[in-house]
Amino acid sequence: MSIDEIYDKQAQAYEAMVSRQPDLSELIHRVKPYEGLDVLDLGAGSGRLSMLLAADARSLICTDISQPMLDILDDKCSEALDARNWTTMVADHRNLPVASSSVDLIVSGWSISYLADSSHEEWRENLELVMSELHRVLRPGGTILILETMGTGTETPNPPDFLTGYYAQLEQQYGFSHQWIRTDYVFDTVEEALLNTGFFFGEELTDKIIANQWSTVPECAGVWWKHV
Question: What's the chain's Rg over C-alpha atoms?
């Protein structure tokens, strides 16, 4: 099953997995205090970042290519928040239905990489289009914060080869600062770890989980940020 099919047909399973990762609100707040700001969550998925931001943001736009994922996000926000300050939009990162100079903070978690994967011949052009759109919708003085994988099933950064070009471009061409963090998946048992990650990451990770008897599955993430 392709990634697109997983996001459309197994959105609930994906949410059950990412809900076991750490709360990243403090990290985001260190980069940009977001209280009272207009925020865009690019590739919001089932809302792992949106749920951290919605309560304190003035407004929150959540875009993704998967409507089933956005439906989960919408349900979660509706249950958790009294006032609706968020909107969801099915959208491509390269052509955002968002007004120019309308947001103060853009966050994007584990999403731009699907367009900037070097297996795509046009990955550089895709990245240039995404960056152009992000700068278009951002107000002067705004901030972009991007999170991407640096390896699942590893305790220190070991990014996939097909993403290292993208990561280098963020720093060398687009002027982002960078650090890495741990974003481990914490489950109660080894069996639960297998059940909740195998569908997405496949046999390579499940073999590691069995061999190491992991109930906590290690993962590293890169954090890139830029104040415009």
Answer: 17
Model pTM?
0.96
> Strands 38-42, 103-109: parallel, antiparallel or unpaired by DSSP?
parallel
Separation of alpha carbons 217 and 205, rounded Å: 9
pLDDT tens profile 192-226: 999 999 999 999 999 999 999 999 999 999 999 99
For 227, the enclosing helix (H) or strand (E) is strand 219-227
According to DSSP, the residues that pair with 108 across neighbouring strands are 42, 146
162 vs 155: CA distance, rounded Å: 20
d(CA 56, CA 63): 18
* β-strand partners of 147: 109, 223
